[in-house]
# Entry
Amino acid sequence: MIPGLAHSATAPTPLSETRERVLRPLLTSRDIGEDIYALAAEIFPICRSIAGDGVRDTLDILGRHIPIERHEIPTGTKILDWEVPKEWNITDAFIKNAAGDRIVDFRRSNLHVLNYSQPVSRKMRIAELRPYIFTIPDQPDLIPYRTSYYSNNWGFCMSHRQLMALEAVDGELEVVIESKLEPGALTWGEYLHKGETADEVLLSAHICHPSLANDNCSGLALLTTLADALSSRRTRLSYRFLFLPGTIGSIAWLAANDANVGRIKHGLVVSCVGDDGGPTYKKSRRGDALIDRAMAHVLRHAGTTANLLDFFPYGYDERQYCSPGYDLPVGLFQRSQFATFPEYHTSADNLDFIASEHLGASFRWIIEALDIVETDRVLVNLSPKGEPQLGRRELYAGNGGDKDAQSHNMAMLWTLNLSDGRHSLLDIAERARLPFDVIAATADLLERHGLLAPPPDPGP
Amino acid sequence: MIPGLAHSATAPTPLSETRERVLRPLLTSRDIGEDIYALAAEIFPICRSIAGDGVRDTLDILGRHIPIERHEIPTGTKILDWEVPKEWNITDAFIKNAAGDRIVDFRRSNLHVLNYSQPVSRKMRIAELRPYIFTIPDQPDLIPYRTSYYSNNWGFCMSHRQLMALEAVDGELEVVIESKLEPGALTWGEYLHKGETADEVLLSAHICHPSLANDNCSGLALLTTLADALSSRRTRLSYRFLFLPGTIGSIAWLAANDANVGRIKHGLVVSCVGDDGGPTYKKSRRGDALIDRAMAHVLRHAGTTANLLDFFPYGYDERQYCSPGYDLPVGLFQRSQFATFPEYHTSADNLDFIASEHLGASFRWIIEALDIVETDRVLVNLSPKGEPQLGRRELYAGNGGDKDAQSHNMAMLWTLNLSDGRHSLLDIAERARLPFDVIAATADLLERHGLLAPPPDPGP
Amino acid sequence: MIPGLAHSATAPTPLSETRERVLRPLLTSRDIGEDIYALAAEIFPICRSIAGDGVRDTLDILGRHIPIERHEIPTGTKILDWEVPKEWNITDAFIKNAAGDRIVDFRRSNLHVLNYSQPVSRKMRIAELRPYIFTIPDQPDLIPYRTSYYSNNWGFCMSHRQLMALEAVDGELEVVIESKLEPGALTWGEYLHKGETADEVLLSAHICHPSLANDNCSGLALLTTLADALSSRRTRLSYRFLFLPGTIGSIAWLAANDANVGRIKHGLVVSCVGDDGGPTYKKSRRGDALIDRAMAHVLRHAGTTANLLDFFPYGYDERQYCSPGYDLPVGLFQRSQFATFPEYHTSADNLDFIASEHLGASFRWIIEALDIVETDRVLVNLSPKGEPQLGRRELYAGNGGDKDAQSHNMAMLWTLNLSDGRHSLLDIAERARLPFDVIAATADLLERHGLLAPPPDPGP
# Structure
């Protein structure tokens, strides 16, 4: 350090030196699950789609918690291999019988309309209408969620029982969809929590599904709550939160940030985090990125049966982040794996399907993985020849030898033995089959006693 | 291309660019199993050995289908660590009782004579003859197949029941073997199907066993039929077919072709391909050669329990091709693994033991593996950033989503995601757990739509 | 070789060229188990500790078999992160009741005194004495073994039943420990068997436990017997035997030999080798050192269920040898794994707990592993193209084909096939799933027939 240019005495020690565990206090915040649930419930009723006011209205609500930067790309703009579509906005839709009763009513569920339906206003008999109706015969009480973004179409989704009732109707039906498909913009929200370094963690949730609670509300609410919690904390890494329409949104973001994606060092796509299944982690395309190893470690110690999947090129926006031209270290965290639970993409994915308890648990698993990503580092044993005499330093739990003392001793011995400059704390935790937290805490203790230190600067 | 020196406009596009799947039509040739069986049956009666007219007579028959080049190496020639032996030719052999009845008769089965027996013409009692008789007491109705190529000996093989009958005979027996062991030549047959490149696939079958249907007739007939089928086709690779006596034949061929074995890029030894067992594939010594991976892939998708073996230095001519001084990428394809079925090396390995159906299936599995070896290549995704918009190109099977459409979509997504210049089509098929054929067809489709292309020439 | 400078004709051929199997005759020495047991029994009664006359008295006895070099480091000397402690010597200790009866008596078992107890001579009631008493309530008949080397303390160990009897005593107890804690020296014994090369095998046993038969006497006795057996033999490697106090002894040795530890190419810590459990092998920190592979190979072919453990940084002196600053290729051989059997560190670890039979078996397994380490080498096939004609050399077991002949043939084929300069004999044995001994004997046979040879000298 050049004399006279030193930082002021009050400048905090860089986290990159102390590796204070800044995220761990979030593990004990008691009401976090309730907070996430409340926010998910607040955005649930909005009729979102990939472009239009649904996205904007949702961002308005999320923006009350964190200052979200809004990005809009005009319809028709070329982005990578794609083009920004028209906006879709809808005010009403129904099927009325001859008596004027709304037999199928958008106001009851926005799932009733095929997402991105063109406007319709016609009288027709059921036989004529039938090709425009989507149901799930095997789940006759549920309304399916269907979309038709990139081909001109219209349609109604309804329970199979509703269809059977409709088929019994004699006479003409009034079929109305009051929607607009017009040039506008693609919208996404972005929030950056700046850390000490420019290295970034990407956290991404989709904002394009209408009233589906697990499959988009839960992820949006969890990430907003996480961003809010981080905002008052000093972190080593920077955290970039993206709230964007699936596929077209991440493609737009990647196109806009093509030159800078190299700063993304870790990332998670988050969706379906409110049900009682899983937890599920699908690895990034790389398969051995730190986030993959961290999440696998957390789930291995989660005390429940976790579902650890190799990357496959189908799912949420990890498909785009992990396309071969980017190959970013971004995985997917879920509870139940998408498309494997019966409520998936139906009206049963509602606010009864998610619970505070599960949202809270998801939040904590994510925090634990991010803590590893924040904190993992290589330390070196300063007394590498033979074991150091721990007893002299009163570090060794002696004579008695209860289970905790044994585990404490083993954590010290493992950390000392493997701190040879080639093993990070996560490496050590994996090898010792101990939780990362135990090894990280042990490393702190040993560092305070002068037995471990960061590796020497390799010099110029 | 230098102007004026261009190939004529009618020159076909090199297969190495289009990778047309020239072998796949052979998969549907309906009567191929019958053709192979008929040819195997035709050569079955001949009394073959490692050198002599049995080999020549067999090559005469195979040569009616393809123009086989015949090679002869004189007795006494040094080849690698070996020396070409004398020829063995036999016209008759029998054991007659006092009444003049042929109790054991070479004309009934050429297995009755110890292969390479010296001539004998003696009267002797059973006690004196006994040391020259071989039987299988555990399989008392079967004649064993035994040889004595490199030590002077003579003997008779017979069923244990025949031996017991002989032992009941009182009086002298007339014991005759009318054979000749004289200087001559070692003979093998060779057929080269020239492809566009000098890279070769070696396909090798042994031609040294007498009337054993599965253990030599089946392989000879299958390879001849395959060579015949290839002869009218344009292939990328060249295919070299060898019909040679086991061990001494492949050693002679290797000695004669020592300088050129580097052109062998893939290979299969083929034997015992007509029974209903297996399929069995024994990997080359390398273990991860393309032919090993291709055959393993085919057997994994064969819809039956396959037997995939690591290399071991015992078996057929792969022992020589995979000796450490050559270490060629040559595996062994069989149905039942040799020496594991009770008919092996007995008179029960006859024309009832093999069937058209099994020969046809073996043919198809071999074709599927050769198709991979012909076609596998690396392509690169020309739209590697984000997914390309498949829907716009009407490539994506949309809304409905039946099983086939899903599989089609997944094949496209996998092929695009992994076509990063580091994965071949077989790599992709393995990773996606889809048949090679599906990935190769998908790659063709994507290439036609301009989404994939061969990697750029690295230049001079 | 320069003419005139040749070695005399009577100089023995270096073992490094012949690789005579000098250790294997030790496998058949019949009474070795009895010899080891007798020596273990002889040293059993001595009250050893980490420094003091117990170590010296034990070395006196071991030294009757082999010339052990004794090393002493003065109290207070800094060694690595440690300091040599005072010596501890004890003459008597007891607890007497009011009637003068020795209720607890050091002369009955030296385990009764907390090892390294300070001197005590007081009258006290049981309530006052109670904090200084150690028992195992779950094993009420056994005296535990406890130590307090580095903190000032005193105490008595006794069976829980003895404690209950004591607690029933009314009146004062006379509590006496006649021990001395005074400056002196740390002692260890060392014996070097010089081989043809300076490469060393380290064989280490701890000498710091009092009357525990399996847990120190067995290892000391086995290594002494092994050293004795080696002393008359010519070996390729040098063998360094260490008899040293646990932890502080190996730390002292490492500190004293810091510059030369590179000559340790293989090593074993040996302890608890007399019970009927295991065998157990804990790999060195490297995990793939030759000694690790050799021991794993021996245990795999041991015909019993062996316990093969990855390295972990707890146990005996392998903790020090495998500390990251040294990382020596030293594993731990045991029968039952330490701390897993109920007799461990109790008075039940006595001479009834170990047996000649088990000591002999341990000896033989160790010899087998050392034989591999002595003998393993790379040979090259001099006839690598095709198989050499084994029949001509009368090496091939022919026609008949019993099981042994097949195994013999396979051993030859494997050895020839893999002797390509990249596989050692152990590599070949592992790949062929045959015992090392079979492959090594086969390699000798093939070498004698001129089919294998050491690789050519790479030259200057």
In short: Chain B touches chain C at residues 80-82, 146, 148, 150-151, 247, 250-251, 254-255, 258, 285, 312-314, 319-320, 322-327 (CB under 8 Å). The two ends of chain B are 14 Å apart (CA to CA). Residues 356-375 of chain B form the longest helix (20 residues).
